[in-house]
Specification:
heterodimer; A: 312 residues; alpha/beta; five-stranded parallel beta sheet; three-stranded antiparallel beta sheet; 10 helices; 8 strands; globular; B: alpha+beta; two-stranded antiparallel ribbon; 14 helices; Ribosomal_uS2_flav_dom_sf (chain A); Small ribosomal subunit protein uS2m (chain A)
């Protein structure tokens, strides 16, 4: 399985910054001193060289999820039926419709737009998969939302999965002028998840544009009055009803916890294998994870859907 | 000019270093000449340094954790040395002993107490600062780090969470039908909310006025609903007790003269008039000023009204005799001085509640207004000379 193909399947939507991202993340992973070139190695070899085994281990831990299309088993978390029950398909009135949301709208009933849940399901799978991969690689995830009704919920969700939230007044240069506002060597978020793309005056949130400027990928729940353009993984859906927002928060929390748990398992597994010796290393878990592998999540997996045409 | 020169010098020297690496013989000669010239240029330009202000020092000083630790160690060692110098036991040398020792060894006549020599624990001298907010991998510790004001917003989050809990509990009780509408009046008198500066100090963060107002509003909302002991304790953390003003009022002790009549003496001032009044417990409302009857001493009704005011306020118009001496000032200020002296003296004959009423009426406060000086270039204190257009 060529890495390029898996990467393109992973990212799906043909974003041009896509192929760069995994490589950037790989080089940003701390604790790895990859020798820059074999030619210069003779100059300062004894102090710098790491044991060959640990580089190999890290590579394998990071590359293993990229070999499977659905490593974190995202499709069992929800179904079109559960989205419908959570009222995700309800959009705003036709007068509020944004022009770029028209492809995602199924139709309108009594002047209220209805969002196409098949497309929503496909987009949501991509978004959750990407979030899981970012969490697996120990990225910083920032939840953003400006609706006061759900501010407490979003902050609680972020705290429960060990990530970060920002549901307050967004200061101008927070992302673009971070060294001044937050500290000299601050690390910016690796992913921003928008539960609400608009702010309290129905304008696009400043963080959407700033994340695009700082080349931070974004996942966002876009309603029928939102602009999905600058968001890397838009998820068309309702962002105003409580059941809908609760569902999205629950999904993100579950998938992030699952990804972190998986990372801990893989590290433990590879550490054990490393201790046993290089001879006993027999390829690791080449099989895709079984459906019952996540004890903390939902019990019954849902039947496979024909969502193989995930790339729009 | 010095700063840009230094940068330029640094850049050139960097290039020089790189150039040296390539190392062709011809070039080396050229570079060496350039380096020599640079030295001369540097000498010429560094003379201006002492005249310029040090921009780096104007920035807020940040102290590292190691520096503070070193200071604490030095303080502890110095404390022991001081104890030895004073001939006392280093183990039981408290902060008061340190203060006394320093005042003895370095006597200072400076009026400003904060300008005198002090030796205190570094925690009290160096302002509290934030340590680095993230770990080795770069992940911040606090989940609200990216908001910028993590302590304040986490406090708001906590308070709002408590409010939601209370409302949920009330809903549950209402569903069961056990909800009772009792509103207990909390003891809010005698305490005040934290002021903005105190809150900033508590959170080690800068706040805006709107932030502070929002926070106080949220806490007040939490107080209006019925909450449990835990929430009460949370709210009480942000209240400070207020000393009741009336207890500060000094009440003169009663004295008794030869006939057994109780009387009380006190003083009063107004502008440049000083008065001393002796109020007797039983009498018929006679007032003697400097040995003269008040009707003759104060022919103007307004002054006599001023003298009447304390007794009229307490409904004791014809019940006390007063003898007073007054000097300085004019007629109005003498009247005001006597009024203050009489009111203070009356406090001894009256209940505490009435003393509080008098204080709130302004009878016990000395009038701080004094004559403002005349300024040069003006005709009076405020009046300017006539302005002529041409």
């Amino acid at each position: 399985m060529a890495p390029a193909a898996s990467v393109s399947r992973l990212l799906g939507a043909g974003v041009c910054a896509g192929p760069l991202r995994p490589r950037l993340l790989q080089s940003a992973t701390p604790g790895r001193a990859r020798p820059s070139g074999r030619t210069l190695a003779s100059a300062a070899t004894p102090a710098v060289r790491e044991p060959e085994g640990s580089i190999d281990l890290n590579d394998r831990i990071l590359n293993e999820p990229l070999k499977h299309s659905d490593f974190f088993n995202v499709k069992e978390l929800f179904s079109v039926r559960s989205l419908f029950d959570a009222r995700v398909h309800l959009g705003h009135k036709a007068g509020c419709r944004h022009r770029f949301m028209e492809p995602y709208i199924f139709g309108s009933r009594l002047d209220q737009d209805i969002i196409d849940l098949e497309q929503t399901a496909a987009h949501l799978r991509l978004a959750l998969n990407f979030t899981a991969h970012v969490a697996y690689r120990k990225g910083i995830i920032l939840f953003v939302g400006r609706n006061r009704q759900f501010s407490h919920l979003i902050e609680t969700t972020a705290r429960d999965c060990g990530e970060y939230a920002h549901t307050r007044y967004f200061k101008g240069g927070l992302l673009t002028n971070a060294p001044l506002l937050l500290g000299p060597k601050v690390r910016l978020p690796d992913l921003i998840i928008f539960l609400h793309t608009l702010n309290n005056v129905f304008e696009p949130h400043v963080a959407v544009r700033d994340a695009a400027k700082m080349q931070i990928p974004t996942v966002g729940v876009v309603d029928t009055n939102c602009n999905p353009c600058l968001i890397t993984y838009p998820v068309p859906g309702n962002d105003d009803s409580p059941p809908s927002v609760h569902l999205f928060c629950r999904l993100f929390q579950t998938i992030i916890n699952r990804a972190k748990q998986k990372r801990r398992h893989m590290e433990a597994l590879y550490r054990l294998q490393g201790q046993e010796g290089p001879g006993a290393r027999g390829g690791g878990p080449a099989h895709p994870p079984s459906l019952g592998a996540y004890p903390g999540d939902r019990s019954s997996p849902l039947p496979e859907e024909s969502g193989s045409h995930a790339c729009p | 000019m010095a700063a840009p020169c230094v940068f330029w010098g640094a850049a050139v020297s960097y290039r020089l270093f790189l150039g040296g690496r390539v190392s062709l013989a011809l070039r080396q000669g050229v570079w060496k000449a350039a380096a020599a010239e640079l030295q001369i240029l540097r000498l010429r330009h560094t003379t201006g340094v002492t005249a310029k202000k040090n921009v780096a020092a104007l920035r807020r000083e940040t102290y590292t954790v190691d520096f503070i630790k070193k200071q604490i160690e030095e303080f502890n060692i110095g404390k022991r040395h001081l104890a030895n110098m004073m001939g006392e036991d280093p183990e039981t040398f408290t902060q008061e002993d340190i203060d006394r020792a320093i005042a003895y060894l370095f006597p200072s006549g400076l009026f400003e107490k904060q300008a005198r020599p002090i030796m205190k624990h570094p925690e009290q001298i160096f302002p509290k600062q934030r340590a680095i907010q993230w770990g080795e991998d770069g992940r911040p510790f606090h989940f609200l780090f990216y908001t910028g004001k993590q302590s304040y917003y986490s406090l708001m989050h906590e308070a709002y969470g408590k409010l939601l809990d209370v409302e949920k509990r009330q809903n549950q009780l209402q569903a069961k039908g056990l909800f009772s509408e009792k509103t207990k009046t909390k003891d809010l008198i005698g305490s005040r909310w934290l002021i903005k500066e105190e809150l900033e100090e508590m959170l080690v963060e800068k706040l805006s006025d709107q932030d502070y107002a929002q926070f106080i509003r949220l806490l007040e909302r939490l107080l209006t609903v019925e909450c449990s002991a835990e929430e009460e304790e949370f709210v009480q953390r942000f209240r400070r007790s207020v000393t009741v003003q009336s207890r500060k009022q000094l009440i003169e002790p009663l004295q008794y003269d030869g006939q057994g009549m109780a009387f009380s003496t006190s003083e009063g001032k107004r502008k440049s008039a000083k008065a001393e009044a002796i109020v007797y417990e039983h009498g018929s409302g006679r007032i003697k000023v400097n040995g003269i009857d008040y009707l003759l001493y104060f022919p103007v009704t307004q002054d006599r009204e001023q003298l009447m005011f304390p007794f009229h306020f307490l409904d004791r118009l014809g019940k006390h005799d007063v003898t007073c001496t007054v000097s300085g000032g004019g007629r109005s200020s003498q009247a005001g001085a006597i009024r203050l002296a009489m009111a203070k003296a009356l406090c001894s004959f009256v209940t505490e509640e009435e003393v509080e009423w008098m204080r709130q009426a302004g009878l016990l406060t000395a009038d701080p207004r004094v004559r403002e000086r005349k300024k040069p270039g003006q005709e009076g204190a405020r009046r300017k000379f006539t302005w002529k257009k041409r």
